[in-house]
Amino acid sequence: MTLLAEQTHFLAEIAADDDAPPSSIGMGIYRNAYRARLIGALESGYERTRRWVGDDAFEAAAAHYILTQPPHSWTLDAFGAQFPEVLAELFAGDPEVAELAWLEWQMQQAFGAVDLPELGAAQLGSAGLDESDWENLRFTMAAGFTAREVSHDLSGLWAQLREDTAHQAENPARADYALIVWRRAMQPHFRLLELAEFSALSHLINGATLGQTGTALEQVGSDPAQLGQWLATWLGEGLFAAYSIAA
Amino acid sequence: MSHTIPRFSGFGLGLRKEHYAAFLGENQPVDFVEVISENFMACGGRPLHTLEAVRARHPVILHGVSMSLGSAHGLNRDYLAELKALAQRIDPLWVSDHLCWTGTSSHNSHDLLPLPYTEEALDRFAANLNFAQDVLERPLLVENPSSYVGFASSTLSEWEFLAELTRRTGCYLLLDVNNIYVSSVNHGYDPLAFLAGIPVDRVRQIHLAGHSQGPEGMLIDTHDAPVRDEVWALYARAVERFGPCATMIERDDDIPPLEDLLAELDQARQLASAGVAA
Fold this sequence. Notes:
The complex is a heterodimer of chains A (247) and B (278).
Chain A: H1 3-15, H2 25-45, H3 47-53, H4 55-68, H5 83-90, H6 95-111, H7 121-125, H8 131-135, E1 137-141, E2 146-152, H9 154-160, E3 174-184, E4 187-193, H10 195-205, H11 210-219, H12 224-237, E5 240-245
Antiparallel strand pairs in A: 1-5, 2-3, 3-4
Helix pairs in contact in A: 1-2, 2-4, 3-4, 3-6, 5-6, 10-11
Chain B: E1 11-14, H1 20-25, E2 32-36, H2 45-55, E3 60-63, H3 77-90, E4 95-98, E5 101-103, E6 108-113, H4 119-136, E7 141-143, H5 158-169, E8 172-176, H6 177-187, H7 191-196, E9 203-208, E10 212-213, E11 219-220, H8 229-242, E12 246-249, H9 258-277
Parallel strand pairs in B: 1-2, 1-12, 2-3, 3-4, 4-7, 7-8, 8-9, 9-12
Antiparallel strand pairs in B: 5-6, 10-11
């Protein structure tokens, strides 16, 4: 058997389910270690999600994930990346589960995201921009920034699912929001946004200039002055890393 | 590229997050720390800032678990690029990884899987290691892992494989004395024969760790307990043969207070001192 064939066979055996028992005590040790390491990665990456669904449901979901989404990255930290999507299928009637898992995953990604500077309002204010420059402003989002729409108010649930209070966690209110996650200095943050604010921010996330964003808001009947207020909020929260002026 | 790694005869610990605050708060009585490379690759924020703060106080060794030097699929170039960037940033004493493979190009076990000790595996491992050393522009240290299966196809012992590897690639060795002991029990060989087969001039570091009893008399390299007496005894013999080199307590689970690990490190110092004097 070639080395390539030997390694392919070896890996298939340790990743198999229990319908195919290991061929030796030693292979059983490797199989147990493989599963324990991957389950451990999911448990440490999704502590709040586990508390919300309970240990048994979480273990079953993790076992399904390990069999259907085997790790492929060089870093174990990436293993759980698709777990929220799988939870969305497994808990189709409880969409807050996948939304909570997504938030938990993104907060950890933000924690270790590659460093970026923070663009402050004072820096922008002292940049000597004329009216045309402001119209053509584009922004680079902060370290670890990501966003999605959600169907529940997860802010209360997130706080309740600390280790000491998880037993008191209550069903989150259902409502349409957006959720943004980013890191400021060393600390990851998240915030729920009303969809109108998220619509405006989405234009900037997708590369529109400030002027283009204002025009888009006017076309749907929004108050243009609102964009200025939101911009001040976003700058105050550290949502941007840098700006550029479109040619 | 420098092709040599000078000897460094200190005593250190694996840096684990449970002890970050202690290492950031004051100088600890260690000569170096070793970190898991992958925990600090392609990242920023608090993890990288912590490593840089510790690096300002102590020499750092980058110890990898994912290079997969024995892979029949070859090496991941993105991985090597990230590791090179980290090494340039941290300026480590050296960079190490294992005599193992971790997966195929599409499936990673995140475990240190054993190799058959054959000429084909030696050719592949040496080619991968030469490639990695060229990319990283430095010689690497290769560590012997614990293993739980052997291969009927093996034609070399583990120590013969390692010794030949040093000749073909110019690499150095990180001897894990606990792993030698664990594998010697699991595969029924004499651990002293392992030590005797290793070229003295290539050893730059020694790992010490705890292990656990596994099924049917096998031992498992769990790194969740203090170093056992049998391993301390083997370490004393290693020091006699290899002389002073960097020695480290490697603890990865059930992490005890830092004071406990420093006490184990003192035990290593005393044994090493007696061994070198003998």
